[in-house]
Amino acid sequence: SGDYLGTRELSDSNNFFFRNFNWQFDGNLVDDDAFNVLNSTARKDDASNLLNMSKLAELSEASGKGGYNQIYTDLVVDVGFNVRSSEQGLETSKIIYDAAVDRKSEFSGVDLDTEAARLLEQQQAYQALAKVLSTAKEMIDTLLRFM
C-alpha cells in the first residue's frame, strides 16, 4: 500500500529494535538505503509446522535430529525407578529403626507395654482415691451441718 509503519535509526553496530526483535544488517550502509519488510502471501495454512514438530518425536537417522520421545520415556522410567527405590529405602530404614528401639528397650530392662499398663493402673487408683476423699468430705460436711 506504500504506507509506512515506522522508521528506525541504525545504531553504530548496524542494528535496531522493533517489536521485540533485534534487527541486524551486515555490509556497508549508505545514506538513503531503504529496506522493506513484507508479509509473505505464500504461506501454508495446512498445519505443516505442527506435522514437522511431531516428526521430531522420532529420531531421524538421516539428519540425526529429534528423538525426544525416547529421551522423555527414559527420563520417566529413571524418575520412577529412583522414587520407588527411595520408598523402599525409607521402609527399610523404618524397620531398622523400630528394631533398634526394641533392642534398646530390651537392654535397658524397660518394657514400654508393661510400663504403660502400670501407668494406667496408677491413674485409675488415683481417680478412685480422689472419689473416696470427695465422698468422705461430703459426709463430714453433712455431719457438721446437722450439729
Tell me what the structure shows.
- The chain has helices at 48-55, 68-108, 112-146, and strands at residues 15-18, 21-24.
- The protein is mainly α and 147 residues long.
- The longest helix has 41 residues, at 68-108.
What structural category do the secondary elements indicate? mainly alpha
Amount of beta strand: 5-15%
Mean pLDDT: 81
Number of strands: 2
Can you write the helix and strand succession as a string?
EEHHH
In DSSP terms (H or I, runs of 4 or more residues), the helix count works out at 3
Q: What gap, in angstroms, lies between the N and C termini?
A: 121 Å
Helical amount:
55-70%
Query: Radius of gyration over alpha carbons?
Result: 43 Å
- State the assembly state of the protein chains: single chain
Which of globular, elongated, flat, extended, rod-shaped describes the shape? elongated
Uncertain runs with pLDDT below 50, 5 residues or more? none
Major sheet: order of its strands?
1-2
Major pleated sheet: 2 strands, antiparallel
Keywords:
147 residues, mainly alpha, two-stranded antiparallel ribbon, elongated
What's the helix and strand layout?
Blueprint: E1 15-18, E2 21-24, H1 48-55, H2 68-108, H3 112-146
Antiparallel strand pairs: 1-2
Question: What would you say about this model in short?
Answer:
The chain is mostly helical.
